[in-house]
User: Fold this.
Amino acid sequence: MPRQTPESLFMGRAEELRKIRNRLDAAAEGAPQFVLVDGPAGIGKTSLARRFLSGAATDCHVVQAGGDELETELAYGLVAQLVPQLPAAAEALREPALGTPHSPAAQDPIAVGALLLDALGQLQGRAPVVLLLDDLHWADTPSLHALTFVLRRLRKDRVLALLVTRDVNDPRLPQGLHRILHDEATLQLTLEGLGLSDIVALHAALGSSALSRRAVARLREHTHGNPLHTKALLQQFPAAVLDGNTVLPAPRRYERLVAAQLARCSAPARHLVEAASVLGMSGPLHQAAEVGAVPDALGALVEAMRHELLEEDPAGAMPRVGFPHPLLRAAVYRGLDPAERSRLHQLAAACSDDPYAALQHRVHAAVAPDGDLAEELVRLAAQQAEKGTWAAAASASTTAARLSTRAGLRERCLIQAVEYRLLAGDVSQAAELEPTLHDMPPGAEQQYVLGHLALTTGRLDEARRRLAACWESGDATTGAETLRKAAEQMAWLCLIQGDAAGIVGWARRGLDLPPARRSSFLRDSLAIGLAISGDYDEGMRSLAHLPLSGPRTTPEQLDGLLARGMLQLWNGELSEARRDLEQTFSSHRRGGLPYAALVALGFLTDTEYRAGLWDEAIAHGTQAVSLAEDTDQISILAVVHACTAFPLAGRGDFEAAEAHARTAMRHAQVLGDVNDAAFAATALALVHTGRGDDERAVAELTPFLSPEIVHRSGLDEVGIVAWRPVLAESLTRLGRTDEALDVLVPYEIRAAERRRRLEQASASRCRGLLEEAYGNQEAADQAFRAGLRHCAEGEQGRQGEQCWEEALLHLSYGTFLRRVGQRGKAVAELQAAHRTFLRLQAASHLERCARELAGCGRPAARPGARRAGLTAQELTVARLAMRGLSNRGIARELVLSVKTIEYHLANAYAKLGITSRTGLFGKLGGES
Assistant:
């Protein structure tokens, strides 16, 4: 019987293959699909994926990569495998050093993910894409974060993602990826062992003599149907042995079966296989031959392939070799005696052109603690921390701890590794080391990192206790950097809890210490604390060191920029706030503080909402939520969800807005944060008022009047969160005017004292509504006109467009004028409001404005007649197209794939009855 190839020996799994094929058909129609294949080692996960690809390769693009046990700490090792298969990959992804911490791209999984998303979008034009990610449990963390970013942004893409891992609940996998894997839309295929008929077919395909039913049943019971173990036993033993009473080798001794297969090879082939195992799942043929001292590399490779130990890897210009299965490679690698394994790694280090790869081989070559190597890794960790490449710094620190000969250095490296993991956004991996830190002798640095971890994961009481202990236990041996970081986290904790005095106090304590080597939140905390306390001018003076623009590469150029953006937002200087918050996000994202970047993105969303830039607000809010969830930044989630809900509620997308608002409230309640709760409640109140339910809006916001709230600074300071004007307006509409007055007066007083024009405008609008309800027409008229003056004196948004508050004032004043019989004046106000509502697609306000205009005898153009039912996403894409952005440019702006942009744009064309971008100006030109 002719010898069978490994692929032809695939047995069973017909139902699984059918289900995956159905998912590929759905992906081909523009509905991205996720398939999870999980199960124990050797159960056939990789074989199933390869079998599927062998049948699908003719009508789709295949892009594949796999994790490697030796490369779990190699930054972007998995991504580096994908790049050569993506013709449209940007140059930043093609850098030779992408797989090392020396690459600029390695600093930011978001940037890498955005470039991958763009390359995938270009690839799927003519055929769907199958993205196979094998052995995710061994993938490096930066790659996992970048790929999670990609997968969560596939909307209308022709992509089938095959995700293969042993354990779907592996804590190393990012939370965003966990959500994908556990989503009900994801097809989960948990593989079980081969059945009896499959084992019979496998045995026949191997060309051996027939087995009895007893032997087949015995073999299945022994191996649990594990295909790898079953095949190995069938190849190793004749039927007589399998059918007899001899005790079969335990499946866990698969390594012995591989060793027996390896022993049948000649010395050159055996040396090539062993050298290849040291290089990883695959590597250059010439390097494996050099490490193994094999003169005839091709001859040895042919022999190894004949024994099914190696296979030729077609990727790359130079010949490469790889292993057919990760377990086979692991069996060869583990089968090496320690001395030989160490020797081969030393040879691999000597012949490597990459200093980082050489260092990793030296690490694997170490068979005992090595103080010199540990010190070298400590220096590498410090270098990477200086650059902000936190994942690489964490990896180096963890390895240094393992190799250190000194207990003190080992503990310090582990403590640093946890902090670096937190700064990299790898909260779950940082939490895995928490028990180890608990077992260490108490110390200031240990208490600081445990407090930082507790704060990041939402355990505020524990965070306060540990950070205070760090500060109090500091002595002459405690580094100023540790105490400074502890003060920074305490200030952040006080900010979460709205304790303005605590924010200022801890920020000043930290700033009194010597300057930090990296960016810190202390200057931001001080300015924010002062502003919340009512001393806005002093807060801005504390930021006088910041240049207006220019590079943001040093702490002196960056620290405090977030606070300046937030203070400008609260003061109504929306253009300046937007500039600073955009710069803060981009700068901190390139190796600064991950939570500062996300806070900036959340408040940028709020800025754009207030400025009447709702397309941008929704795009940035959605991005902020996704990034905060992906990186487990629990303390930020409430604010970013609430800010995202604001423009969605304004557009009448009440279901999505309410989902964000309720999620925000859940996170605020977990943290016990009254300020976050105010953001969430305001978002919910806007949903209720949009639906015409002022009673529920009042119910959401009234609790914040309680005198029992300890820290009220953030609640009562005007410009931070607009719960008071929303509550006053709802109370007025319900006829509860005296209650509305009690809510409004403190807000009016503070807005006037702070000279915040947009807050004064909002207060004037509420005063006008209230005076109208009281029947004081002259006072109402004066209040509305005062509000419009405040808007004219203050920030007007971008390019002369009305901000949101000004549009609300025009609507309220126009409604008042119509009711008192001044229809001519009313029309001008209502038309001004209508133009803004139409531009923003503010559905419920448009309807109300149209009714008022109709009451004046001036029917307004129906928005549906112009937009023909465009969704919010379609309208956003159409408007960006009208600005001259290409499809790829729009994709980068919204952080979506090109295919998704093409889909939305095509839908917009069809609904508007046009065929090109130029047609958009005729349909939407008045709104752009």
Remarks:
- The two ends are 73 Å apart (CA to CA).
- The longest helix spans residues 407-424.
- The longest strand covers residues 159-165.
